[in-house]
Amino acid sequence: MTKTKVSIQRVFGYESENVRLALLKSLEFLGGLEHIIQPKSHVFVKINHLSPPSPPDDMIVTHPVFTKELLGLLLDMGCEITVGDDIQSKKEDGFLISGYRKICTALGVRLVNLKEIGFREIACNGQILTKSYISPLVLDSDFLINLPKLKTHSFMAFTGAIKNMYGVIPYGLRCSYHREYAKSEIFGQMLVDIFSCATPHLNIMDAIHAMEGEGPSAGSPKKIGLILASSDAVALDAVASKIIGLDPMQIHTTIDASKRGFGTAQMAEIEILGEKIQDVEVRDFKQSAIAVGLIRKNIPAILHGFIQWQLVLIPRVFQKKCTACQECVDICPKGAAQMLEGKASIDKSRCLHCMCCHEVCRFHAIKLGQRPLGRMLRRMTTIYKKIMSFFS
Ligand code: SF4
Ligand code: SF4
Fold first, then answer.
1. For residue 366, which atom of ligand 1 is closest to its CA?
2. Is this model's pTM higher than 0.85 or not?
3. Triad 19, 57, 14: Cα angle to 5°
4. 391 falls in which pLDDT band (50, 70, 90)?
């Protein structure tokens, strides 16, 4: 049986030359970049670039040095490249703050905010979606390269290669899908539907400095020192989640995509090249609170609803930090985030717990709380994991 290849390469920090050499090495394990991407072809590079403008060292976006070094390799092959993501920068240029404007200008590479080009309706033979709206830049490229950032996610527990493709559909649609598919399991199926319409040829994950805790934007940077690469996004996500202590078969996107044959999440079917998983595991990686819900498999099914209700994250506005920018109000799919007396406020009775407001607030004014039993379960899970890692 031919196994799916995932390469794991060490590199410490974002020093250009080191990143370039590490990228070359990780791609060599897959047979070389030319083995996957045809020279002189049109390539779309999908970065992970959230809307709230953030500098690269916050570790919210795929680091621009990481992308720059890959672009250099593609330029050497004579490729015509477009780099992009769909972002909602208003007053400020998000690409300028993250460093993308500078690197793409310097290299002469086209950088596009996808909303400026528009989206094309296509049929989608998905579990949930029958049609979707994808950027024509993605659909018309010869090759699609996906550059996710290794981060936790306060709604989906983990964000990796599959979820990064959510950014190729319009922002407004993303908000309404949050409203329509409010359960994380169903939301995961919808994400896989989008992925099925825009499946990358190559996925390279920036796990040099990751994000732990309440990602994808309000967590803390964590030095991991790795680059992961694979043509199989499902296998790459499975390996990445395992490295940070999550069971891949409890990540909704991984389970669903592997069941539907978009790749494999079975370790027996994956050939790891470069570093071994056990040598690079990060045992003290802080999970998102919602990831504690993954312990559900050890709890009788009759209690799942109650446990989930206890574990659910509840956004609250920390008014002293609120600058009244209204980004949370604009993104809230349920109208639960509102402005009251010049500050944001959240109507708990309308909240879907989608965490969009938390993700978009760049002033860290939205904090996530849990019900008392949820908090206790979370602490117990952390202690349990520490004890288990001590004995393993
Ligand atoms: S809570 Fe955050 S996103 Fe919402 S208005 Fe205040 S600063 Fe802006
Ligand atoms: S208040 Fe925040 S978590 Fe609740 S529905 Fe609105 S965006 Fe989602």
1. 1
2. yes
3. 15
4. low
